[in-house]
UniProtKB/TrEMBL annotation:
The keyword Magnesium does not apply. GO terms for cellular component: plasma membrane. This is FtsX-like permease family protein. It comes from the Bacteria. Keywords: Cell membrane, Membrane, Transmembrane, Transmembrane helix, Transport. One of its GO terms (biological process) is transmembrane transport. It comes from Christensenella massiliensis. Belongs to the ABC-4 integral membrane protein family. The keyword rRNA-binding does not apply. It is found in: Cell membrane. The chain crosses the membrane at residues 17-34, 63-83, 104-130, 157-178, 205-224, 230-256, 289-313, 546-569, 603-629, 641-661. InterPro entries: ABC-4_Integral_Memb_Prot (IPR052536), ABC3_permease_C (IPR003838), ABC_permease_BceB-typ (IPR027022).
C-alpha cells in the first residue's frame, strides 16, 4: 500500500521533482565520468612518463571527489527541503486522516528511494555515454593514440557513485523522517498562510550600502589592474568580498528607486508587480545572492582560467625549443676533461652517435643587478617574479660571445656581433625583450666590470636556452666580449645537443636514457648534475596540464550546479508563496500571457543579476590571474580562457528554463 502511494505521489509531483531530479542526474553523471578516467587510461597508448602523469591526475580527481560529494550532499538536502515544504499541507492531511507519523515518514522514504534509484540509473547511463566522449578528449590532451575503440565502463567508478549517492539518499531519508516526527499538524496545514518576514530598508540606506559596496569593489579592481594581485591578494579579497555583500544588501532599494523613477515604464503592464516581487525577494535573500554571485565568480574563473592555465602549461612545455637534450656539466669535470663534451665522452656517452650537432658554453653570474639597473623599465609583475624566482640573487646571467654563438649556430640562428664596449642580451620573454628595447632606445648604459656597456636594440635576442623550464633561468642573459667574463662566478657548463636526423627521435631518446641508466649502475659518479630532454619535458608537462583542466572543470561544474540550483529553488519557493497573488491578478482580468511574461521577466532578472556581477568580477579576476600566468610562463593565453565558458551558459540555461516551466505550473495550481 505504501509503495503504491509513494509511486503515485512521485508521478503526480513530477513537475516539483524536475529540478531535484535533474540535479541528481547531473551530479551522478559528472561524478561517474570524472572518476572513470582510470578506465580511459587503459585504452590509451601511454609511455612511462605519461602513465606517471595520468596517475597524478587520477589521484587529484580522487581527492577532490570527496569535496564534491560533500558539496552535493548539502545541495541535495537543500533541494529536498523545498520539496517537503511544498507538500506540508499534503502531509498534514495524511496525519488528520489517521495515518501515523511513522507511516508518513515511510512514504517519504520510499519516494526518496524511488527518485534516487531512477536518478542514479539515469545519471550512470548518461555518465557512461559522456565518458565515451571524454576518452577522446583525454587522449588528445595526453597527446596519445587510442589503441583501439573500446566501450569504456568503469566498475570502480560505478560502485563509488552508488556508495556515495546511496549515503546521500540515506541522509535525506533520515532528515525527512526526523522532520515529519517533529512537525505539528496545525503548522503543516497552515504553512501556506505563513508570510515571510521582510526587513525593509529606507532608500537612503540602500543607496549608501550600494555605494559603499561599489567603492570597495573598485578598490579591489584597481589593485588587480595595477598588476598587484600576486602581492595584495588578501587585500583584494578583503575589499572584494565585503563589497559584494554590501552591493547586494542595498540592491533591492536601489533597483526599486531606479525602476520607480521612470513612471511611464513603471506603471506599464505588470512592471509594478514585478518590481515589488523582485525587490522583496532580493531584500530577503541578498546574503544568499551574494554567496551565489561569488560561487558563479569562482565557477567562471575556474572553468575559464583552468583552460587558460592549461594552455599556458602546454605552451611552456611545447615552446620553441630547437634542440633535444641538455646537460649541466660540473665545472671541475669539464676543466679536467678539456670541455663539457669531452667529459661526457670520457664518462662513456657516445655523443657523436646520439647527436648530430652539439654546443657548449659556460654561463656565469654577472655583477649586473637586475632590480637596480633595469627596474625603471620593468612592470610590477616582472619585478615580483624576478624577486621570487631569483631568491635574492637578482643578477643577470653572463656568457661569452664566441661560446654562445656556438649555441646559436646549433639552432640555426645568426651569430651576435658586439664591439669591445658593447653587450648583447638574450631573454626568453617577449615582454622582457620589449622592456629592454625601451631601455636601449632611451640611451641607457649597462654598468658592469667597472665600466659602461652600450646595448643596441638589434642585439636583443629572444631565445629558449633551457629545456628544464623558463622559471629556472635568469630572465636576462648578457652576452659579453670574450675576455670580459673571466672575473665572474661560474654557474653552469651547458652542453646541448640535437639528435641525429637519420633515426626517429623517439628511438634516439630511448637509446640515450638506456645508455645513461646503464652507466649510472656501473659508475654512479656522473660528470653532470642534471640531464633532461625536450620530449621528457613535454611528457611531464602533460600531467600538470591535464590535471589543471580536469580539476578546474570538475570543481567549476560543482559550483555552477550549486549556484543554479539555489537560484532555481528560491524562485520556485517564491512562486509557491505567491500563488494567491497570481490568482488575484487573474480575478482582476489579467491575461495569462501577461502573467507568464511577468513571471519570465522576474526569473530572468533574478538569474541575471548575480551572473552579471560575477561576470564583471571574473573579467578582472581572470585578467589578474592571466597576468600571473604570463609572468610565470610568458605566453599570451587570453584567447584560451573563453573555451570553458560555453559549459556555464548551457547548464545555467537549463536550470533557468526548468525554473520558468516549473514556476509557471506552480502559479496555475489552485
Amino acid at each position: 500500500m505504501l509503495c503504491k502511494l509513494a509511486f503515485r505521489n512521485v508521478r503526480k509531483s513530477i513537475g516539483d521533482y524536475t529540478v531535484y531530479f535533474i540535479t541528481l542526474m547531473f551530479a551522478v553523471m559528472f561524478f561517474y565520468a570524472f572518476n572513470s578516467l582510470d578506465a580511459q587510461q587503459a585504452v590509451m597508448d601511454l609511455n612511462e612518463n605519461k602513465e606517471t602523469a595520468a596517475q597524478m591526475m587520477l589521484q587529484s580527481i580522487e581527492v577532490f571527489s570527496v569535496f564534491v560529494a560533500v558539496a552535493l550532499a548539502i545541495l541535495i538536502l537543500y533541494a529536498n527541503n523545498f520539496l517537503i515544504k511544498r507538500r506540508n499541507k499534503e502531509l498534514g492531511i495524511y496525519l488528520i486522516l489517521g495515518m501515523g507519523k511513522g507511516r508518513v515518514a515511510g512514504i517519504l522514504m520510499l519516494e526518496t528511494l524511488l527518485v534516487g534509484i531512477i536518478a542514479l540509473a539515469a545519471g550512470l547511463l548518461l555518465g557512461v555515454l559522456f565518458s565515451q566522449g571524454m576518452s577522446l578528449v583525454t587522449a588528445k590532451m595526453f597527446e596519445a593514440e587510442l589503441k583501439e575503440y573500446v566501450f569504456i565502463f568503469s566498475p570502480r567508478a560505478a560502485v563509488q557513485s552508488v556508495i556515495y549517492f546511496g549515503v546521500m539518499f540515506l541522509c535525506v531519508m533520515v532528515f525527512n523522517a526526523v522532520r515529519v516526527s517533529k512537525q505539528k499538524v496545525i503548522k503543516l496545514l497552515h504553512s501556506e498562510t505563513e508570510n515571510e518576514k521582510v526587513l525593509s530598508k529606507k532608500t537612503g540606506v540602500s543607496v549608501a550600502l550600494t555605494a559603499a559596496g561599489i567603492v570597495l569593489i573598485i578598490i579591489a579592481y584597481y589593485l588587480i589592474i595595477k598588476g598587484m594581485l600576486i602581492m595584495y591578494l588578501p587585500f583584494v579579497m578583503l575589499f572584494g568580498i565585503p563589497g559584494t555583500f554590501l552591493l547586494f544588501a542595498g540592491l533591492s532599494g536601489f533597483v526599486y528607486k531606479i525602476a520607480a523613477h521612470n513612471k511611464t515604464r513603471y506603471f506599464k503592464g505588470l512592471n509594478l508587480f514585478v518590481t515589488r516581487q523582485l525587490t522583496s525577494k532580493i531584500n530577503s535573500t541578498h546574503t544568499s545572492m551574494a554567496l551565489i554571485c561569488l560561487m558563479l565568480f569562482v565557477t567562471i574563473v575556474t572553468l575559464g582560467a583552468s583552460s587558460g592555465v592549461s594552455a599556458a602549461v602546454n605552451q611552456e612545455t611545447n615552446r620553441d625549443i630547437r634542440f633535444d637534450a641538455e646537460y649541466f656539466v660540473y665545472t671541475a669535470d669539464a676543466e679536467n676533461a678539456g670541455g663539457g663534451v669531452a667529459a661526457l665522452e670520457a664518462y662513456g656517452i657516445p655523443v657523436n652517435e646520439f647527436y648530430q650537432r652539439t654546443a657548449e658554453y659556460t654561463q656565469y653570474d654577472s655583477d649586473v643587478d637586475i632590480m637596480e639597473q633595469f627596474a625603471d623599465h620593468l612592470d610590477i609583475a616582472q619585478l615580483k617574479e624576478i624577486e621570487g624566482n631569483m631568491k635574492g640573487r637578482a643578477y643577470t646571467g653572463a656568457v661569452s660571445v664566441s661560446e654562445f654563438n656556438t649555441f646559436l649556430d646549433m639552432v640555426g640562428d645568426e651569430p651576435i656581433e658586439i664591439g669591445a664596449n658593447e653587450v648583447g642580451v638574450v631573454t626568453y620573454n617577449e615582454a622582457m625583450a620589449k622592456a629592454l628595447e625601451n631601455f636601449a632606445q632611451d640611451g641607457n648604459k649597462i654598468v658592469s666590470n667597472g665600466r659602461e656597456y652600450s646595448l643596441e636594440a638589434s642585439d636583443i635576442r629572444i631565445e629558449n636556452t633551457r629545456i628544464m623550464g623558463s622559471s629556472s633561468v635568469s630572465p636576462i642573459i648578457l652576452v659579453y666580449p670574450d675576455g670580459d667574463v673571466s672575473g665572474f662566478e661560474i654557474r653552469d657548463v651547458m652542453v646541448d645537443g640535437v639528435y641525429v636526423d637519420n633515426v626517429p627521435k623517439e628511438e634516439t631518446e630511448d637509446a640515450v636514457w638506456a645508455k645513461q641508466n646503464e652507466l649510472r649502475k656501473a659508475a654512479p659518479e656522473r660528470p653532470f648534475s642534471y640531464f633532461t630532454t625536450a620530449l621528457t619535458s613535454q611528457d611531464s608537462g602533460i600531467g600538470l596540464r591535464v590535471t589543471i583542466s580536469f580539476v578546474g572543470i570538475y570543481l567549476g561544474i560543482t559550483f555552477l550546479v550549486t549556484a543554479a540550483v539555489i537560484l532555481a529553488l528560491q524562485q520556485l519557493s517564491a512562486a509557491n508563496d505567491n500563488r494567491k497573488r497570481y490568482a488575484t491578478l487573474r480575478k482582476l482580468g489579467t491575461e495569462e500571457k501577461l502573467i507568464n511574461r511577468s513571471l519570465l521577466k522576474q526569473i530572468a532578472i533574478y538569474f541575471l543579476i548575480p551572473l552579471a556581477v560575477a561576470a564583471i568580477h571574473a573579467i578582472f579576476g581572470i585578467q589578474g590571474l592571466m597576468s600571473m600566468i604570463n609572468m610565470v610562463w610568458y605566453e599570451n593565453v587570453y584567447q584560451d580562457v573563453f573555451l570553458g565558458l560555453a559549459l556555464i551558459a548551457v547548464i545555467y540555461g537549463i536550470y533557468f528554463i526548468m525554473t520558468y516551466i516549473s514556476s509557471k505550473k506552480i502559479i496555475k495550481e489552485k
